[in-house]
Design a protein that fits this description.
The chain has about 350 residues and is mostly helical. It has 14 helices and eight strands. The chain has a two-stranded antiparallel sheet with strand order 1-4. Bound molecules: protoporphyrin IX containing FE (HEM). The site of protoporphyrin IX containing FE has 21 residues, from α8 and α14. Its cofactor is heme.
Length: about 350
C-alpha cells in the first residue's frame, strides 16, 4: 500500500505505522476494496453500465461508495493543484500524478494556455474531438485504477509466496542461498536494478506461485471484427473468456499441476512451452500495465524479507492444494494463510 501510495498518489499511506482511522488515505483505499460482487448496486453496475452512467448524471451521485468517490476526488484534486502551481514539479517528481499532468500539459501547451485543475474539463462531453488532452476525471480515474489494479494483486501474490515458502523449507533455503550469493552474507544495502535480473531461481518461485494462484482467474475480450481461429468462428461484438486458472492447472501443459515446482520456470523450460501457457498478467495490447512494476516490487520486497526472516509453517496445518475462492474479483484462499516468522 505504501509503494502504490508513493508511486501513484505521491502520498504517504503510513500503512505500517497507523491503524485505519489514523490516515484517511488508508481508510478509503481499504474501503475501495470492500466490494460485495453480489450486492444489487454492483450487479446493476455490471449488467447495465449505461443505466449507472445515466443515474450518476441525473443525481450527480455515485452508484456506490459515494464517500470513497468524494474523498479521492478531493484529495487528488489538491495534489494536482499543488503540482500545477509548482514551476519545478516537472523536474522534482516522477510519480504517476506528475507523468499524467505532463502528458496533459504537453498537449495543452501546443493548443491552449497552461491550465489549472479547476479549468480542466470535468468530463468527456466538454472535450472537443480534436483535442487529445486528458480530463481531470480521466487523470483521477487512472490514478484510482492503479490503486485498484495494483495493490491487492501484488499483496495477494506476496502473501501466497510467503505461505508457500513456509510449506517448502528446501525451496526457501535455495532461494535464500541465491539472494546471499548476489548480495553477500553481510548484506549489500542497496539493490541495483541489474541485480534483479540475476535472480533466476527467485523469478521461478514467483512465476510458479502466479501459475498456481493467478490473482485474476480469467481474461475477457470483445471481438471487434469477425474472426476465425482454428476453425472456430467469432462473430463481431461477441465476448469471450480466456480461462487463466484452467490453463495454468491443465495437466497436459503442466505435469502434476497441483505440485509446487519452481523449476518449471527456469529459462529452458519456459522456452519449451507455448507463450500463452502462462498468463498471470494477460496478453496482447491490453495486458497488465503494471506488470514490470509488480515484478520488481515483488522481487525487491522478497529480497528484504528472505534476507531478514525465516518462514515456518504454522501449527495449524491446512491441506495442500490450498482451498481457493474469490474475493473482490480476485483469487483468494478460503482459509487464512498463516506462518511463523523468525528473525535471522
Ligand atoms: C501480481 C500483480 C499483478 C497481476 C497478477 C496483474 C494482473 C492483471 C491482469 C490479468 C490484467 C488484465 C490483462 C488482460 O486483459 O490481458 C491486468 C490489467 C491491468 N493491470 Fe495489472 N496485475 C498486477 C499488478 C498491477 C500493478 C502493480 C498495476 C499498476 C500499478 C497494474 C495495473 C493494471 C492496469 C492499469 C490494467 C488494465 C490495462 C488495460 O486495460 O489496458 N497491475 N492486470
Amino acid at each position: 500500500m505504501n509503494v502504490i501510495g508513493r508511486c501513484v498518489f505521491a502520498s504517504n499511506f503510513n500503512s505500517l505505522q497507523s491503524d485505519n482511522s489514523d490516515t484517511p488515505l488508508l481508510y478509503y483505499s481499504k474501503k475501495l476494496f470492500d466490494i460485495n460482487l453480489t450486492s444489487p448496486a454492483i450487479m446493476l453496475l455490471l449488467s447495465f453500465p449505461n443505466l449507472c452512467y445515466l443515474y450518476q448524471r441525473i443525481t450527480k451521485r455515485a452508484v456506490m461508495q459515494q464517500d470513497v468517490d468524494e474523498f479521492f476526488i478531493k484529495t487528488l484534486t489538491e495534489v494536482m493543484e499543488q503540482r500545477l502551481k509548482d514551476p519545478e514539479a516537472k523536474n522534482n517528481y516522477n510519480d504517476a500524478v506528475q507523468l499524467l499532468l505532463n502528458a496533459m500539459e504537453e498537449t495543452e501547451e501546443t493548443e491552449t494556455p497552461k491550465a489549472t485543475v479547476s479549468q480542466l474539463s470535468e468530463s468527456d462531453e466538454k472535450r472537443t474531438d480534436k483535442r487529445k488532452t486528458l480530463t481531470k476525471m480521466e487523470i483521477l480515474a487512472q490514478l484510482v485504477l492503479f490503486l485498484v489494479a495494483g495493490y491487492e494483486t501484488t499483496a495477494t501474490t506476496l502473501h501466497f509466496i510467503i505461505y508457500v515458502l513456509a510449506q517448502y523449507p528446501d525451496i526457501q533455503d535455495k532461494l535464500r542461498d541465491e539472494v546471499k550469493e548476489i548480495f553477500g552474507d553481510c548484506g549489500k544495502e542497496e539493490i541495483e536494478f541489474e541485480d534483479l535480473s540475476k535472480l533466476i531461481y527467485m523469478n521461478a518461485v514467483i512465476d510458479e506461485t502466479l501459475r498456481i494462484f493467478p490473482p485474476a482467474t480469467r481474461l475477457v475480450r470483445l471481438c471487434q471484427k469477425e474472426t476465425e481461429i482454428q476453425g472456430i468462428k467469432f462473430a463481431k461484438d461477441s465476448s469471450f473468456t480466456a480461462p487463466i486458472y484452467a490453463i495454468h492447472h491443465n495437466p497436459e501443459i503442466y505435469e502434476n499441476p497441483e505440485e509446487f515446482i519452481p523449476e518449471r520456470f527456469l529459462p529452458d523450460e519456459i522456452s519449451a512451452r507455448h507463450p500463452m501457457a502462462f498468463l498471470p498478467f494477460g496478453a496482447g495490447p491490453r495486458s497488465c500495465l503494471g506488470m514490470r512494476f509488480a515484478e520488481y516490487e515483488i522481487r525487491v520486497t522478497l529480497i528484504w524479507l528472505i534476507k531478514s526472516f525465516k518462514f515456518l509453517s504454522a501449527d495449524e496445518k491446512l491441506p495442500w492444494p490450498v482451498e481457493l475462492g474469490m474475493g473482490g474479483g480476485l483469487l483468494k484462499s478460503k482459509h487464512e494463510l498463516k506462518c511463523k516468522i523468525v528473525k535471522l
